[in-house]
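Sequence, please.
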């Protein structure tokens, strides 16, 4: 690695503006430093440099604006107590298929959960959901069982209507059907396929030399 190129790259990095409009050189020296790029002499004048408090106010305003924009689409999530049954999102498949129990809560909305296999995982609140534990069904007491109702009487069976007689086919339709059955399929017989050696060939046209 060329040390001269590395030094020039570091100088350019120090003069590059950062979040808020100030470069690292301005934050340290309150002015830019000379680097490898050509610049006018008035570029380093004091009237062209912004005051430190103006940069701080600009940075503070940008942070407040971004915070207000982010909070427009957010909502507060309830806190899980220790012993709550939760579902954890898998980091690869993005499915909520890991059942666990909260064993410890952290200060930054983080939880330590214990899976069914005994593993301890640390997850943020946004990757946890409350799991509703379904208890097995139990038989109700005899006093709450409703008495069985008597069966309803069956409706009397209705006689089936007489079947309509089958239509008689006219003799012309019978003759056409018989002719169709007597007709046999006769495959077409083609002549012998000509081979390439039996095809007539034309003499090539040759030009005199």
């Amino acid at each position: 690695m060329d040390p001269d190129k590395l030094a020039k790259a570091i100088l350019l990095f120090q003069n590059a503006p950062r979040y808020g409009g100030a470069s690292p050189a301005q934050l340290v020296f309150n002015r830019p430093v000379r680097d490898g790029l050509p610049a006018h002499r008035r570029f380093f004048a004091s009237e062209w440099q912004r005051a430190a408090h103006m940069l701080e106010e600009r940075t503070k305003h940008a942070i407040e604006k971004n915070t207000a924009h982010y909070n427009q689409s957010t909502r507060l999530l309830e806190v899980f107590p220790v012993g709550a049954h939760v579902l954890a999102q898998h980091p690869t498949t993005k499915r909520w298929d890991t059942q666990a129990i909260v064993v410890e809560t952290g200060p930054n909305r983080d939880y330590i959960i214990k899976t069914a296999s005994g593993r301890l995982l640390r997850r943020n609140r946004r990757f946890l959901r409350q799991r509703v534990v379904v208890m097995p069904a139990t038989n109700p007491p005899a006093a709450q069982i409703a008495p069985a109702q008597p069966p309803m009487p069956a409706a009397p069976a209705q006689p089936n209507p007489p079947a309509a007689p089958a239509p008689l086919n006219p003799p012309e339709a019978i003759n056409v059907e018989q002719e169709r059955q007597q007709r046999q399929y006769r495959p077409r017989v083609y002549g012998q396929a000509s081979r390439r050696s039996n095809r007539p060939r034309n003499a090539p046209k040759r030009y005199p030399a």
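The helical segments are 3-15, 24-29, 52-71, 171-182.
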